[in-house]
Design a protein that fits this description.
The chain is α/β, with parallel strands linked by helices. The chain has one domain: 2,3-Dihydroxybiphenyl 1,2-Dioxygenase, domain 1 (Roll), CATH 3.10.180.10. Helix content is 18%, strand content 34%. The mean pLDDT is 93.
């Protein structure tokens, strides 16, 4: 259903270092990086889509996160949510909600929320029950 998600950034080197540390925790691999044009993309191994992209806005004006906009990335398990949230905070993210169960969404929803160094809000979540 989704082809790609693009996150606007202001400083490519800072954003690339952040996402290069955070996204592999979820199993995403770098597909390309073009510092000259200021964009990069990651994907799950073996599939062409969806892509997670970072880049400067096309109009070259300042990137600005929208209020109420958020990208939610799927984690394979709850431990990956914890690791990804910790990796994000270690790379300069600010927490918007520590990893934990959110039963008001559904019984097995486990998510953590953060804002990247440009202020974009992201969620990392798992919808699976904890293994027995």
């Amino acid at each position: 259903m989704i082809s790609h998600v693009h996150i606007g950034i202001g400083d490519f080197d800072r954003a690339f270092a952040f996402y290069a540390a955070v996204l592999p925790v979820l199993g995403l691999e770098l597909k390309f990086s073009d510092p000259d044009t200021g964009w990069a993309g990651w994907m799950m191994p073996g599939v062409a889509r969806p892509l997670f992209l970072i880049g400067r806005p096309f109009d070259r004006r300042a990137a600005s996160p929208g209020n109420g906009q958020m990208v939610a990335l799927l984690a394979p398990d709850r431990a990956a949510v914890d690791r990804c949230h910790a990796a994000a905070l270690a790379r300069g993210a600010t927490s918007e909600g520590a990893p934990g169960l959110r039963p008001h969404y559904h019984a097995n929803y486990y998510g953590g929320y953060f804002r990247d160094p440009d202020g974009n809000k992201l969620c990392v979540c798992c919808h699976q029950p904890e293994p027995r």
